[in-house]
Amino acid sequence: MKKVLIILLPIVFLFILWQSIIVIFDLPHYIMPKPKDVFFQLINQHSLLWEHTQTTLLEIIIGIILGCIFGLGSAFTLLYFKKIEKYLLPLLVISQAIPVFAIAPLLVLWFGYGMASKIVMTVIIIYFPITTACYDGLKNTPKQWLQLAHTYKLSALQTLLKVRFRASLPSLASGLKIAVCIAPIGAVIGEWVGSSKGLGYLMLHANARMQIDLMFSALFILIVMTLSIYFLTDYLTKKFIPWASHLH
């Protein structure tokens, strides 16, 4: 019951604050819609919203999966191929130094207006936190674990998979939780630049037609979706990495 109240109270406070701001400053509908108008749009336009939600959710999920694959591969490469490290690390930094807004039009041009360009943007955004988190975890494997692996004469591959990778999971989990929070940014930016489906496209289209309540409805769904992915990730990491709190 306490956990439910902890979740509900901030939401109730937010809606009260939202309605209060509208009343106090006498904001017109086209500046900020009332919470009840947004709620009505969620009900009345549920089919339209669900159609666009599926597209964005699929882009995010595929982007997270591919980002994890490339991130883990890069972390393993950095660990075992020291000569490549001095070339790959600058690329990691560059991937974050260039704003995704700046390269979004190019990605749409190269990969088209479909889902591919949005997935690529999502991968680019989460690639850095996944790679660095996993790499730090691999490097900081407790020496006792490595000594035990040496005692049992494990091969390099066995040491990587059974010792180093397990030791890196708590660090990787932290990076993954950051990644799932920022992954929707890539998908939505891609939909803003060029698309015909998705919550980002719907928000842009609704804003152009002054349907601000519909735009807020799409934004609300995006927030709920991101929170759901985050809490699911947090639950799974706690369930499948129980040794995280005892690593050090």
From TrEMBL:
Membrane topology of this protein: Multi-pass membrane protein
Give GO cellular component annotations, separated by semicolons. plasma membrane
List locations, semicolon-separated.
Answer: Cell membrane
According to its UniProt record, where is this protein mainly located?
Answer: membrane
**Pfam families given in the database record:** BPD_transp_1
Q: Which UniProt keywords apply?
A: Cell membrane, Membrane, Transmembrane, Transmembrane helix, Transport
**InterPro entries per record:** MetI-like, MetI-like_sf
**ABC transmembrane type-1 domain residues:** 53-233
Q: Which GO terms describe its biological process?
A: transmembrane transport
Sequence intervals crossing the membrane: 5-25, 60-81, 88-113, 119-138, 172-194, 214-233
Q: What family does this chain come from, according to its entry?
A: Belongs to the binding-protein-dependent transport system permease family.
PANTHER family linked to this entry: ABC TRANSPORTER PERMEASE PROTEIN HI_0355-RELATED, ALKANE SULFONATE ABC TRANSPORTER-RELATED, MEMBRANE SUBUNIT
Name this protein carries in UniProt: Nitrate/sulfonate/bicarbonate ABC transporter, permease protein
Originating species: Arcobacter acticola
